[in-house]
Amino acid sequence: MIGDTKGRRKKARKSLDDEADRGVLSEHERRRGGVRASMTGVHIVLFVGLVVAGLGPILWLAKAAVTPTQDTLQHPFELWPNGIDWANLSTAWNDVHIDQYFVNTLVIAAGSWLFQVLVATTAGYALSVLKPKYAPILNMAVLATMFIPAVVLLVPLYLTILHPPVIGTSLLNTYWAVWLPAAANAFNILLVKRFFDNLPREVFEAAKTDGAGPFRVFWSIVLPMSRPILGVVSVFAIIAAWKDFLWPLLVLPDPAVQPLSVRLPAVQSQTELDVFLAALAISTIIPVALFLVFQRLFLRSAGLGGAVKG
């Protein structure tokens, strides 16, 4: 009697699993030749469409970066009808001073990354692991800031940078004016907090039993277990700093310290089309490289699903 009951339960669980795994088409329908051929055709069309929509603009920009202006205007989709002009890259790098603006962008992105990761990890650690009594209030306050439009904060932030408290010295034309506001990113804090919520508490309790303090737990246990989310936050921070235009334009009026996102539109009217496209291609190197390095984290949604408990 007991064996029959267990057998029925196993069959019921198997049927439920089969129903959960069943999609629009069943396995029997997928085995049919006509259905299989039509599904293959749909997959090919979708794959080609995604490749054209995703890689098409990047590949065209790479082609146009080493193509003379007349060829780009007259034959925009032909592959170098009159040869390749490699001089566009050197002209953009040296004569348009893309090298200087590239370095400025790297400095801004590196500082923004450092401060965003620092604030996100420490705030997420405090809200998720330390959990003071007022943690729910802080959590709601951080969440509430996400509902404030960024445009509304431009004037208060600019006035704060112009007349900062305590130090009393204007931060205009300094990278601190970009780094400090970027550090207060509510999305990153909540993202890291959610990841920390799924870390195994048994490890923390064992470390505390061995005499580890809050800082030791954070540095030696939490951070090594949080590499996936740190990678995701790092990419978000660097790409956001790389493409930001309005805020650097306001707080960095001096062209000598402006990033690529600000200087490229400014020099467009004074630069040949082929040289300008070469400058645009150079400016896309870092974001593309970052995606290639961290693509597995995005494709597997690492950092958003929590840690593996063991």
Automatic annotation (TrEMBL):
InterPro entries in the record: MetI-like, MetI-like_sf
Biased composition (Basic and acidic residues): 14-24
Pfam families: BPD_transp_1 (PF00528)
Residue span, ABC transmembrane type-1 domain: 102-294
The entry's keywords: Cell membrane, Membrane, Transmembrane, Transmembrane helix, Transport
Membrane-spanning segments: 40-62, 101-125, 137-162, 174-196, 217-242, 275-294
Cell division in keyword set: no
Family in the record: Belongs to the binding-protein-dependent transport system permease family.
Protein name from the UniProt record: Carbohydrate ABC transporter permease
Taxonomic lineage: Bacteria, Bacillati, Actinomycetota, Actinomycetes, Micrococcales
